[in-house]
């Protein structure tokens, strides 16, 4: 009888250890390669110092990665006979950027660590956090230990990455499909407090919308004509190089650049959250950090799943 109890106890302990071993941890690289995170931070800071816009681009890469089959660095894979690259998806084509910065980080981290031990998926997650901090935003403990995918899906990217044309119900449903709630939707959308959007993404709004400040629409039309100039950039809020709450202030004034931005303050269920974040910056910063951690937990690979790519752009041979 005692032996049966001992066996049962061993099974419980082993099951517990297995569960723990495959969960993410902020300290994953502490013993494997303690210089990994400081190296990423240094290179992200240098990239953002060189070009402030790069901070938003690196944040966006992590977001677009996680929304397509989880946070597995699939967005970084180049096209090949076996890879239907997500870089060709509607939301990424001629728009996603920062790949060279990730390449540089990967090369330097592997050099510091002596071998490829840091996944490209973890590099994306840490680079997103360090970009936000470099632009004055909050910090958080990034949970680490993800592995990299061996596949990508342009088709899935076209389905899962939220469109700038979405209304509120579509946005809520899109985020719900990823296990994210309305608070996550508004907090993560607040990432648009940094960065720019292309004319193609907001042309319909500035020429056709009724819930838009007329002077703002006129201002944006000056650089985004009805035809042509698709890639011309406009800031997502009035302080595009600084992480603050100007984004939420702009929504209340009907000066949201994208249809999906203004949808968050349009008489719907997220209006109160927009007002809360506008009036209480610390609440926004706290919720943004928590939602970033939550997003980073979407369908990650661990253990024997996937691989640690030697080159973020291609699957290991």
From TrEMBL:
Q: What class of enzyme is it?
A: oxidoreductase
Please tell me where heme b binds in this chain: 192
Chain sites annotated for binding substrate: 162
Q: Which InterPro entries match?
A: Haem_peroxidase, Haem_peroxidase_sf, Peroxidase_pln, Peroxidases_AS, Peroxidases_heam-ligand_BS, Secretory_peroxidase
Q: Copy out the cofactor comment.
A: Binds 1 heme b (iron(II)-protoporphyrin IX) group per subunit. Binds 2 calcium ions per subunit.
| Disulfide-linked positions | 33-113, 66-71, 120-312, 199-224
Q: Which cofactor does it need?
A: heme b; Ca(2+)
Which GO cellular component terms are attached?
A: extracellular region; plant-type cell wall
Q: Where does Ca(2+) 2 bind?
A: 193, 237, 244
Residue ranges of every copy of the Plant heme peroxidase family profile domain listed in the record: 23-316
Record flagged with keyword Glycoprotein: yes
What does the record give as the function of this protein?
Removal of H(2)O(2), oxidation of toxic reductants, biosynthesis and degradation of lignin, suberization, auxin catabolism, response to environmental stresses such as wounding, pathogen attack and oxidative stress. These functions might be dependent on each isozyme/isoform in each plant tissue.
Q: Belongs to which family?
A: Belongs to the peroxidase family. Ascorbate peroxidase subfamily.
**What is the protein name stated in its UniProt record?**
Peroxidase
User: What species is given as this protein's source?
Assistant: Gossypium hirsutum
């Amino acid at each position: 009888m005692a032996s049966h109890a001992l066996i049962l106890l061993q099974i419980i302990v082993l099951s517990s250890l297995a569960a723990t071993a495959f969960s993410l941890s902020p300290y994953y690289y502490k013993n494997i390669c303690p210089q990994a995170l400081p190296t990423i931070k240094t290179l992200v800071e240098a990239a953002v110092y060189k070009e402030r816009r790069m901070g938003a681009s690196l944040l966006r890469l992590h977001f677009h990665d996680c929304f397509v089959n989880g946070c597995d660095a699939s967005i970084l894979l180049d096209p090949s006979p076996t890879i239907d690259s997500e870089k060709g998806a509607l939301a990424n084509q001629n728009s996603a950027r920062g790949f060279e910065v990730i390449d540089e980080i990967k090369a330097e981290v592997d050099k510091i660590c002596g071998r490829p031990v840091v996944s490209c998926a973890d590099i994306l997650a840490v680079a997103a956090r360090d970009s936000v901090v470099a632009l004055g935003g909050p910090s958080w403990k990034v949970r680490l230990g993800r592995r990299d995918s061996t596949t990508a899906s342009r088709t899935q990217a076209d389905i899962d990455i939220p469109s700038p044309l979405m209304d509120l119900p579509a946005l809520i449903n899109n985020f719900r499909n990823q296990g994210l709630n309305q608070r996550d939707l508004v907090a993560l959308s607040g990432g648009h407090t940094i960065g720019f959007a292309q004319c193609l993404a907001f042309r319909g709004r500035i020429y056709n919308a009724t819930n838009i400040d007329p002077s703002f629409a006129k201002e944006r039309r000056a650089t985004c004509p009805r035809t042509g100039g698709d890639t011309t950039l406009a800031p997502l809020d009035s302080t595009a190089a600084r992480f603050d709450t100007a984004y939420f202030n702009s929504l209340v004034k009907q000066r949201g650049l994208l249809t999906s931005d203004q949808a968050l303050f349009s008489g719907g269920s997220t209006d109160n959250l927009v007002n809360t974040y506008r009036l209480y910056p610390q609440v926004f910063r706290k919720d943004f950090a928590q939602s970033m951690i939550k997003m980073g937990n979407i369908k990650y690979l661990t253990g024997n799943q996937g691989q640690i790519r030697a080159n973020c752009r291609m699957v290991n041979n």
